[in-house]
């Protein structure tokens, strides 16, 4: 009986080894994917660092060229230096922030908070600042939303700020931005930021959370000094809080970003 089992049917040991090698294979593939993404990100970062540095270098060379420069020339060059320095600062800060968030040895400050109070307070804050001027802001959260979520408050604020800033940046005057929250059947809280902005082409949606992906620089307003890492930061934070983020969008109509968090 013993030998039959050994040669004819897969033994428990064989099955376990098969399962283990499958898990190892999957982990190895993930590692390769992560390494490829990291290499691509480093290449992109070097490129992104070079562009503002070149502009700053050119502006300095222009000022030092000894030509008869007018006041406007000086002001123009200083503005270039100022704008491009902000580019660099944002890129370096966001890169560092993303590395910290992804570093699982750095603990999050988890706190159990009442979702309605947290969202209410957040919305009051953004309504009070003039950052979102010329947009119509709506709060669409039921008064009887009764649930507790386990979050790092500061990081969750960063998530909402990034999504709200995108909603503002990629929409025009008088566009509507709504903060919505509903409990799903499966005991999760779905928090959405909905805008009536320019939307995202369908083919781009699966890639927008990648660190290495930009839809098109022509879509970003000229005055923007962003790093392009905003949604990667959002995804990294949400996943460390055991959540998921999804995006639905129709070009020309608007976008909805939904964070789904487990409820306690
Ligand atoms: N609400 C939105 N509406 C339309 N397009 C969006 C929206 N949110 C994001 N996108 C698109 O996804 C891309 C990635 O967004 P992400 O926030 O990561 O970078 P960014 O806004 O370009 O730069 P940063 O957030 O660092 O300032 C954007 O460049 C933009 O094309
Ligand atoms: Mg952004």
Describe the structure.
This protein is of the alpha+beta class and 264 residues long. The protein is 50% helix and 18% strand. It contains 6 helices and 7 strands; from the N terminus they run αααβαββαββαββ. It has helices at residues 2-7, 12-63, 71-102, 115-128, 153-169, 230-240, and strands at residues 110-114, 136-140, 148-152, 176-183, 188-195, 244-250, 254-262. Helix 2 packs antiparallel against helix 3. Bound molecules: adenosine-5'-triphosphate and magnesium ion.
The helix tally amounts to: 6
What small molecules are bound in this structure?
adenosine-5'-triphosphate, magnesium ion
Helix content: 40-55%
The number of E-state strands comes to 7
CATH fold naming of the largest domain: Heat Shock Protein 90
Physical arrangement of strands within the biggest beta sheet? 2-4-5-7-6
CATH architectural arrangement of the largest domain: 2-Layer Sandwich
User: Which residue ranges are poorly predicted, with pLDDT under 50 across at least 5 consecutive positions?
Assistant: none
- General form: globular
User: What's the helix-strand series?
Assistant: HHHEHEEHEEHEE
Please specify the SSE layout and strand pairing.
Elements: H1 2-7, H2 12-63, H3 71-102, E1 110-114, H4 115-128, E2 136-140, E3 148-152, H5 153-169, E4 176-183, E5 188-195, H6 230-240, E6 244-250, E7 254-262
Helix pairs in contact: 2-3, 3-6, 5-6
The chain binds adenosine-5'-triphosphate and magnesium ion.
Adenosine-5'-triphosphate binds next to helix 5 and helix 6.
Features:
264 residues, alpha+beta, Heat Shock Protein 90, 2 domains, five-stranded mixed beta sheet, binds magnesium ion
